[in-house]
Specification:
It contains 20 helices and 23 strands. The structure holds adenosine-5'-diphosphate and D-xylulose.
Length: 523
């Protein structure tokens, strides 16, 4: 028997699908549609709507609805084996919220295959746009909720994270404050993940513990809605939220709409969706504590699995539920690749030249340090951008190229210490992971071997693997996670870079100096 599972990923810029053959341990089909290109009528740029207030970043939820139709049609036209799919799950960009009126539940329950999804669901919104994770317009609401919960440390201890502008609770509070009538008309609030799951299942979906933790509304220890946080956010909120669920919860059978329109297996089950970061934990196979991924993209993120919940009292990092039922940690840097590019461009170099410069200086850069806050930073919290140098001549190309990379890696070491998990294996992904000079410094600063892993669609793959796990568990064969991920998320052969013992000793000292310089600058 061929057991196929479908994983979808509703991200900021695109909707993607991966079908895996679970027994053969391979991806048998994948596709993706880009919102701007495929659905230009919604007027998005990079999947988002621009606003005169640059802090406000929304997307049209009806575009995500239509994208689902377009994606399934494409799969059908491509001859994707939809009739053999046993279960579907998905991944959504985290934090974004969808506001549904009193018509939504009924409309979802009777999707008419004679009409398309847009016709079926056009009238179900109490707010036509959805604030997404790139929105940073809720500082006032963050402060209000944080104060009601007792400050940064207390907020992090209760909800897993300090309040962040992009998190759903502060966004809901802003909607309630600025559009009280719209808030009143809202019967259900969904996350991007639970909204997409609701369409597939034809009923309002629960929110899983992974994505629920990105709202500042869930008690991170009890994995239940937190009454005090709900009260601090908006009145009557509890009745507008769906239940929370384990990340392997089967919602039910797939809506007949998808069977009739696209030939999806009528027995296919839908599982609760989760956030893209929790799904990537599975897609990258990070199921043992100590296995960490460092994604070197536009922004840099450091994330991994955590068995026992420990939060960041300084409120810089986040703890979410992991799809395994454990926890996951995440720290996210705005000054990632773009900061490296700035230094590279200041010295008129290409990446090869940049690397030659990096390698022209010894580990520790003769004590030269740079704080790379070209942009306001999340980790550590920096509101005023600024690049600061210590024992470093701004004109010295070699020293500055080395300093930016060492700074980013030392910052990750210092600001991941609250997790109290020494990495034993680091998987590097993202654009800059092609750069071995950067990876060597990563290995030396972290004192840990680094391997490259190239899973471009780790979130969609993670969703497909979650579908497989949930379906097997529901059928009485719950497999260990090590078995679920085996063979799907392997590092690139021979890509391992080992730490160099003498460099490790240099960085053990230099991180102290970096930390002092950072603290002194932040004061
Ligand atoms: P995104 O986060 O947008 O998905 P990617 O993972 O594709 O981004 O990474 C893109 C970034 O990778 C670019 O900002 C680029 O500067 C960086 N990058 C690409 N190649 C290299 C390299 N050889 N060395 C360092 N950085 C690189
Ligand atoms: C995580 C975050 C982003 C989004 C979009 O906290 O805001 O990673 O999940 O990818």
């Amino acid at each position: 028997m061929t057991r196929l599972f479908l994983g979808l990923d509703s991200s900021t810029q695109s909707l993607s699908a991966i079908v895996i053959d679970y027994d053969a341990r391979r991806i048998v089909y994948e596709t993706s549609i880009n919102f701007d290109k495929t659905l230009p009528q919604y007027g998005t740029r990079n999947g988002t709507l621009r606003s005169p207030d640059t802090l406000v970043v929304h997307s049209p939820p009806l575009m995500w609805v239509e994208a689902l139709d377009v994606l399934f049609r494409q799969m059908k036209n491509d001859g994707a084996p939809l009739d053999k799919v046993m279960a579907i799950s998905g991944s959504g960009q985290q934090h974004g919220s969808v506001y549904l009126n009193d018509r939504a539940a009924a409309a979802l329950g009777r999707l008419d295959p004679a009409k398309d999804l847009v016709e079926n669901l056009r009238d179900i919104f109490s707010r036509s746009t959805s604030p997404i994770w790139m929105d940073s317009s809720t500082s006032a609401e963050c402060a209000e909720i944080r104060e009601a919960l007792g400050g940064i440390k207390a907020t992090a201890q209760q909800t897993g994270s300090d309040t962040f502008e992009r998190f759903t609770g502060p966004q809901i509070r802003k909607f309630f404050k600025t559009q009280p009538k719209g808030y009143d008309r809202t019967e259900n609030i969904a996350l991007v993940s639970s909204f997409m799951a609701s369409i597939l299942a034809g009923r309002i979906s629960p929110i899983d513990h992974g994505d629920g933790a990105g709202m500042n509304l869930m008690d991170i220890q009890k994995k239940a809605w937190h009454p005090r946080a709900l009260g601090a956010t908006a009145p009557g909120l509890q009745s507008k939220l769906p239940p929370l669920a384990e990340p392997w919860k089967v919602i039910g059978g797939v809506s007949p709409y998808f069977v009739k329109q696209f030939g999806l297996n009528p027995d296919a089950q839908t599982l609760v969706w989760s956030g893209d970061n929790p799904c990537s934990v599975i897609g990258l196979g990070l199921i043992a504590e100590g296995n960490v991924a460092i994604s070197l993209g536009t922004s840099y993120t450091y994330f991994g699995c955590m068995k026992r919940c420990r939060v960041d009292d300084r409120g810089e990092g986040s703890v979410f539920g992991a799809p395994t039922g454990d926890y996951m940690t995440l720290i996210c840097y705005k000054n990632g690749s773009l900061a490296c590019e700035k230094i590279r461009d200041q010295h008129a170099l290409d990446w090869e030249g940049f690397n030659q410069m990096v390698e022209s200086r010894p580990p520790g850069n003769n004590g030269g340090i740079l704080l790379p806050w070209f942009e306001a930073e999340i980790v550590p919290r920096v509101n005023q951008p600024g690049v600061h140098r210590f024992d470093l001549d701004p004109k010295d190309a070699g020293a500055n190229c080395r300093a930016i990379v060492e700074a980013q890696m030392m910052s990750m070491r210092i600001h991941s210490a609250w997790m109290k998990i020494k990495p034993t294996r680091i998987y590097a992904t993202g654009g800059a992971s092609a750069n071995t000079a950067i990876l060597q410094i990563m290995a030396d600063v972290m004192d840990c071997p680094v391997s490259r892993i190239e899973v471009s669609k780790s979130a969609a793959l993670g969703a497909a693997l979650r579908a497989a796990h949930g379906w097997l568990a529901d059928n009485g064969h719950k497999p260990p996670w090590s078995e679920v991920v085996a063979g799907f998320a392997d590092p690139i052969p021979n890509s391992e870079i080992k730490p160099d013992a003498s460099a490790v000793r240099v960085y053990d000292k230099l991180v102290e100096k970096y930390s002092q310089f950072e603290q002194a600058t932040l004061r």
